[in-house]
Amino acid sequence: MINRLCCEIVVPILWRDPWRYSINYKNKNYLLAMIGFSLPDNIKEFLNSQGIQLPSILHQSLLFDYFSFCESINIDIMNSIICIGSSFIQFSLQQEFYNLIMRKCSELKYLDMGSSIKHQIYYFPEAKAHLKSLCELKCETCINYKFFYGLSRICQNIQRFVIINISPKTVYTGLIKLIEVQKNLKYFEWRDDFLANDNLCPYEEVFLMLEKKADILNNLVINLKYRFFVHSTLQKIILKFHKLKLLMVNGYVLISKEPSSMLIYPDLEILHIDYITISAASSIIENSGGNLKEILLFNTLILNIILMKNLLILFVTFINIVL
Description:
Transmembrane segments: 301-322
Shape: elongated
Keywords: Membrane, Transmembrane, Transmembrane helix
Strand content: 5-15%
Organism: Glomus cerebriforme
Mean pLDDT: 79
Number of strands: 9
Largest sheet: 9 strands, parallel
Oligomer: single chain
Protein name: F-box domain-containing protein
Structural class: alpha/beta
C-alpha cells in the first residue's frame, strides 16, 4: 500500500535509532519476533528445549534487514523487550541480541547504558570495530566502574557524554579514565539524581579531569544537588572553559567575585545559571562577543541581597570593634 521507493528511503531513517520513540516497548511482540527471526538456529533450538516459544512472523523472510540500519543501543529498552522466561534465559537472550546488533550494524553511534547493563559488550568479537565509532554515550554512575575502564580502551571519540549520578557512594575511577581518553568531547552533562548535604563532594576528581578538556568542550550542562560544593572546585573550573557555546549550571555553585577578565566566553550563545551576582553576570554578557541568544539567571537578586546583608553585618561588627 505504500510506494516502494518511499519505503526504501524511510525505513533506514526510522531504524537508525528505533528505541527513541514514546511507545511501550515491553508490549511490542513484533519486535521480539524480529529478534527471534534474526537469531542463529542453535539459539532458537536452545530456547525451544527450555520451553520458550518466541513470537513468529507471518512471512518466510523480512522485507528489510532492519537491524543492519540500527546505529544505537538502549540497554533498558532492549531488556524490557526481552523479558520472557527465567533470569538465565533473559540474560542469554540479551547477550545474543547485543551480539546481533554488533554483527549487523555498520557503525554504532549512540549507546544508552542506563543502569541495567550486565554484559561486557566490549569483549564481543566485533565490538572494537563498532564501538570505536561511538559518538554519544549516556550512563548512570551505579554501573560497575570496571565497565568504563573496558570502554575507555575502545571508545575515545565520544562527542556527547551524559552522566546521571545516582548515589554519592560510587567509585568514579572508571568514569574519570573514560573522560581522560576522549579526544573530541564537545558536550558534557552531569546530572545528580539525589540530594545530599555533605561538606565533601565525592566526585570532585571527575570535574578536575574534565578541566583538561577545556580546549575542546563547547557545551557544559551541570545539575548539582550537593549544597556545599560551592567555591572549592567547580567555580574555578568553569572559568577556564573559554570556548563554551552553552553553559547551564543548576545548583548552589556561586559565580560572584571573580575578576571580569576571567569571565570571558566569546562564543557563548546560551547562559543558564542558578546562583550568580549581577556584577558577574554583567561581566559575562559584556565579554560574550555579542553571540548570546538566550539568558536565564536565577536568584541574582537574592544573592545580591545576601551579599549586601553580609557586608552590612561586617560593617556593623567593625564599628562595634572600633567603638
